[in-house]
Amino acid sequence: MSQLDCCIIFDIDGVIIDNTERIEKYGLNENKEDFYSDRLMAFDKPRELGIKLLEEKKKVGKIVIVTGRPERVRKKTTQELSSFGVELKEIKIIFRPNNIDKIEEWKVKKILELRDSGCNICEVHEDSEEVIYMLKYKIKGTKFFLHKGNKVESI
To answer: Which superkingdom, per the lineage (predicted)?
Structure first.
């Protein structure tokens, strides 16, 4: 399979970025406006395992990040990723629209749209079991990886 034939999907939070301290400070409700404030995003840290995998996978295919982060934090997020050593030059990042609250359903829909537009999705790296299981039965021949803490598990 050539590099152009393979799309590898990554999430940001819980996969490339460790946002556990932000969650601890604010709670799990990512839909609240303040969750993505500069004040709270300052608690984010690089997730070394996810960054290493992302960099390795660039050699295998096209990287597409599909994130539940709202579009309004695009600039802050790209700055954050760059500061953590993620080279964004050849990575496509899809942010959720600011007015969408159902993050998991939106991510599944967006990934299926990528598939339907000709993206051969070889792998999905995600921290949401719900997203993985919604996709697993809709996209055949794809490898799914669940990221939790300092581990990644093939599902």
So the answer is: Archaea
